[in-house]
Amino acid sequence: MKLLKAVGAFFVRIGRWVKDTAWVQPLLIVGAIFAVIFSIPSITDWVEGIAEDIKSSEKYYERFQRSLEGGESSEADRLLADIQEGESPVGDKFFLAFVSSECASCAEAKKGFETLESGWAGSLAPESDNLPFNLVTIFTDEVTDQTTTRESAFVQFLSRNSYFFEEAAGIAYTTDYYYNNKISDADLGYLESCDEENFLTPTILLVDFELGGVSEVMFGVTGDTDVKKAELLRDCWDHANDFTAD
User: Fold this and answer.
1) Which of 57, 62, 75, 177 has the fewest other C-beta atoms within 10 Å?
2) pLDDT for the residue numbered 38
């Protein structure tokens, strides 16, 4: 108790000295201003780095995009219809990622996808099959001729395809990834209800027609390194580790 009082008294004396010594206060203010000024370049570099990552991820995802243009007859709508009918529009197995062009989490996921794609035939090769790397993307913020001031193209898409998302969420509740506490009830609830305000990007589905269609659901890609992110996506493809029972 005496020690705490002594420490407290010390800081009180320092505060009183600063208060009573008028010339110190301007120096402290000037010092704080210069600290902020000198930190601006670092902050700017950090912000610019994030912006560059997001721009890079947008270009990457555009390689695999299925557009919302055309409403009911759009590439994205036809893709979901084919999946529900059990057809293989782009292959027997593929990742289906819902992304946006201004999404830091999508930029992080892109690092995993890109690393996995480059290592697909080598160190990151899946063990479950010899199928090619396969990714399809749908942009939730795509502006089309159908976009209105009241409803985005994606909101209209969700409304037309609500059953698909309800079914995907229902499947997710049965996966080991869910039982291993890797996805939450709240996040699945947003997916199930097609809640446009809270729809998470990236939302990643693994479509595996050997297992009947949508077989895994992820929200984002975690991992301390790009390789760890890629390994998580590969585990999803293989239904291994976090995607299987303990």
Assistant:
1) 62
2) 72
Co-location of 221 and 127 in the same domain:
yes
Q: Region 134-143: what's the mean pLDDT?
A: 98
Range of the domain at 14: 2-52
What CATH number is associated with residue 225? Answer: 3.40.30.10
Helix (H) or strand (E) holding 95: strand 93-99
* Predicted confidence (pLDDT) at residue 53 exceeds the cutoff of 70: no
Q: Could you tell me if 221 and 202 are in contact, meaning their C-beta atoms sit under 8 angstroms apart?
A: yes
Closest to 96 measured CA to CA, from 176, 17, 213: 213
Residue 59 lies in a domain: no
pTM: predicted TM-score of the whole model, two decimal places: 0.79
State the CB neighbour count (10 A cutoff) for residue 46: 10
With CA atoms as reference, report the closest residue to 144 among 134, 156, 132. Answer: 156
Dist. CA 51–CA 129, nearest whole Å: 36
